[in-house]
Amino acid sequence: MKNSRIRNIRKELLSDNWYTLNKFTFEYRKEDGTWETQQREAYDRGNGAAILLYNKKKRTVVLTRQFRMPTYVNGNEDGMMIEVCAGLLDGDHPEDCIRKEVEEETGYQIHDVQKVYETYMSPGSVTEILYLFIGAYEDRMKVGEGGGAEHETENIEVLEVSFDGALGMMRSGEIKDAKTMMLLQYALISGLLD
Ligand SMILES: Nc1nc2c(ncn2[C@@H]2O[C@H](COP(=O)(O)OP(=O)(O)O[C@H]3O[C@H](CO)[C@@H](O)[C@H](O)[C@@H]3O)[C@@H](O)[C@H]2O)c(=O)[nH]1
Ligand SMILES: [Mg+2]
């Protein structure tokens, strides 16, 4: 970390229940050269990976559906979110993480994955970098039911939908998850399923 615009960074732990919330107090050098003190909170839940599973022949994609409490308390009526498969790195390399997560959540054992973007999803408040992948799947790669890890009480539903159907769900607002929208738009722009 190097930035000549900031100095005297102090960190105060506000919460470390499931993940970590810190308050940072620091001095920031403005354009006119003077220093001002600022405070910013940063929620650290580690980094994550997400993947768009696609089948070019069938022109389909695999998505997941699960309850997301933070959306429920902010306007998402039933709290259910349709998303690409995703998970936290938990110390794994992003590629290893996403392969593991795909099998756990969707039941597919996939081979090749390709990273298309790295993104800070909420840079004003959350430290997380999300690694976005695409990966081809076929019916014969299905080795289990998916649904998520039992001990994590994830209750994930697996959806196989047509690519056009998924694009329609994005346009209608049924899909509201940013990483999912980014990957669907990537697929559209790059002609991935053409
Ligand atoms: N008890 C408890 N459990 C939690 C809490 N927060 C998360 N969990 C458990 O931890 C699991 C983490 O599952 P993953 O599949 O590894 O992560 P994810 O929640 O799907 O996260 C992915 O999507 C996020 C949202 O788009 C991304 O932010 C993240 O990077 C990742 O890609 C959750 O399903 C849930 O069971 C919490 O506050 N308390
Ligand atoms: Mg997940």
TrEMBL record:
Xref: SUPFAM superfamilies: Nudix
Domain Nudix hydrolase, residue spans: 44-183
Superkingdom: Bacteria
Keyword Magnesium annotated: yes
Cited CDD domains: NUDIX_GDPMK
UniProt keyword annotation of Hydrolase present: yes
One GO process term, biological-process aspect: ribose phosphate metabolic process
GO cellular component entries: cytosol
Residues that, per the record, bind Mg(2+): A86, E101, E105, E154
InterPro entries according to UniProt: NDP_pyrophosphatase, NUDIX_hydrolase-like_dom_sf, NUDIX_hydrolase_dom
Assembly notes: Homodimer.
Protein name: GDP-mannose pyrophosphatase
Organism: Pelagihabitans pacificus
Gene: nudK
